[in-house]
Amino acid sequence: MNRRESIRSIVLGSMAGSLVIESCAGAPEEVVVDKIWKHQYGRTPKEAAINEKLLAEQFFISHEMQTITTLAQLILPPTEEGTIEQAGVPEFIEFMVKDFPSMQTPIRGGIMWLDNHCNNAYQKTFVNCSEDEQKEVLDQIAYPDPNTKVQKQEVQFFSLMRNLVMTGYFTSEVGIKELGYQGNQPNVWDGVPEDVLADHGMEYDADWMPKFIDQSKRNDTAVWDDEGNLLT
Amino acid sequence: MQIIENDKKYDVVIVGSGAGGGMATKILAEAGLSVAVVEAGPFFDPANPEQQTQLKWPHQSPRRGASTSQRHFGEMDMAYGGWQLDGEPYNHVGDTKFDWFRSRMLGGRTNHWGRISLRFGPRDFKSKDRDGIGENWPIGYEDIKPYYDKVDKLIGVFGTKENIYNEPDGFFLPPPKPRLHELYYKKGAEKSNVKVMPSRLSIVTKRINDQRGVCFYCNQCNRSCQVYADFSAGSCLIFPAQKSRGQVDLFVNCMVREVTVNDEGRATGVSYINKEDRQEYKLKGRIVVLAASACSTARILLNSKSKQHPNGLGNSSDLVGKYLHDSTGADRMAFVPEMMNRKRYNEDGVGGMHLYSPWWLDNKKLDFPRGYHIEVWGGLSMPGYGFGFNPNALNEHLGLKVGGYGNGLRDDVKKFYGATMGMSGRGESIARKENYCEIDPTTVDEFGIPVLRFNYKWTDAERKQAKHMHDTFEEIIHNMGGIALGEKPGADKNYGLHNPGAIIHEVGTTRMGSDPKNSVVNEFERLHDVDNVFVVDAGPFVSQADKNPTWTILALSWRTSEFIIEELKKQNI
Asked: What is the DSSP annotation of B141-180?
């Protein structure tokens, strides 16, 4: 049995039989297995069951998902570096509102507010507005008033959407690449690169240098004298 | 309900598998004793791919690393648990705000902690001599030094010899070079005459033995290291103990209710609930070693009521649960404009700070007792849930517009990446009898075991310390060319002092002393009232210094374990 099959057998077997049955109503079994296969990261059985349950549910209706996607595209328009679709932003937002139910009403209500506003102004829903019209609306809600502590609902709604879009994008594979984060892999740290030190007018103190790890000796087993002086 | 008795009688039954329990397991098993370790959570091995979160990406999770009800420090953090556990409540009396972090898994909280491994210094054991407050320990630095030395060599800790009286040097591995934001911190702190030195963390920067790997600098010690390059009680103590000549039986997912006693009032073992079948069992041992964490151990003792010990086991002094104290804590974040638009490179480093500041002042010139150390954080770290929130809020400091939409936001995020850093003060609070945990007669957990309730109030001693932390932070931030973010918390906010418990250094509930009237255990962590029960977690701490407790827990547990072996040899137990 390969790894994928073994995960299928876990899903269909002991782990959460009832959840699979429940999920059949919402999503085909294959989709559920795919989603769970994608999300293997050291979950306890209880955590895996929570994830599986949330992944099998659908909170937003398709019009809401369309609106969220349109908003996300306006917040971060596609570039060569990456798109919100490549970053999985809409499905991330769908998941987060199920995980943090307190976000459900502000977002669902915010979308209704947006459509109501657009219906009054342009006689159509937000997604059916032209890009210029959409931006006209966003210009009114995308800039928090620096002179108030509690922003108006529509401004809060947009800030929440912007937060979710930005974090969804920059925690994705394309977003992390665009950001330029280079870690999360085995590596040998040997200090800030020389050119960076120079750029910032910094240097390592000469009297400190002999104290730091000599990375060429890191695999030599440590031996000390009785006073705690390292000999190797 | 029928209580099922295990026929086997162990030499030692150890409750809890964190730092204290892990060390006792290793030393006692290697001496050839039969040991039962009872742990309330599941088995955990950081090398098990099914449990690993190390080197996972945020996008492997549908919530991108956000915290959950199951893991309060983020779902990649290796603590199964947090401030609340399903089915295991705790309560507060009056307006007490005490936060209690519990981790239910083999190795306990050692799987995710900051690995800050500081020895208490000579002054820390005798603080009352200095300022007349609190109580002295019955032991001094010279009693524990040999054990600190052994812990250093066994587990591995990096650091530098600094010859500071109250920050004793040890057997150090070489530390890693500082990161960029740490150099900014050093620049700012030294202008304020705040001492800065390489930190002391139990992370193996250089090979220490054949069983442990060497750090590969992923910055994720909080996820527990799959090559065992950081200290976790499972990988460094319990697994080696299982390979020793002794015999170690692990009872995981087993929640201890009480210590059982015979007619003479001596301990006979423990009773526990197996979480899998929800049945109650009894385990027999000649000796019981409690290491469930300071508050959980107090809870077990207070719940162990018998005809012989009507006030709870070891509680003739009525001090079990009293003198509970946690570190003080306050934090501040800074924006350093010079670090905007940074060149990218892999700056992960070890999981934690490469530099820190030990306490550097003389309290005679200050309006509060005791000190604190400063931890530093920041860098080009891996994004997780929350990264990118308020993407350009820092524009406020540059006279630029905040908010908006469109690809300018991409540039803002990249511009500010790595340009913020922060400082945390962690200090010594005063142990007070009035701060305590006790059994709440109104509430049980899902196993029917009465739970704890907390009584705890900070005083001006702690509030003034927090105020001093914030004053210092602002000065350092200014000196390094940074801008302190957020408002400086004032008196109305206790100067930003965290709730007691929040720093997760809770200690003192079974305090050590030579007089049975004003202490619970003796200098070998043995209950004054019962000669075959020992406490090897942070319960026996008389005072906790401005140091993290783990290294002292380990050293004391080793010392106590050797004492137990000697007593058994002499047939005194």
From this structure: HHHHHHHHHHHHHHH--B-----BTTB---SPBPPPPP-H
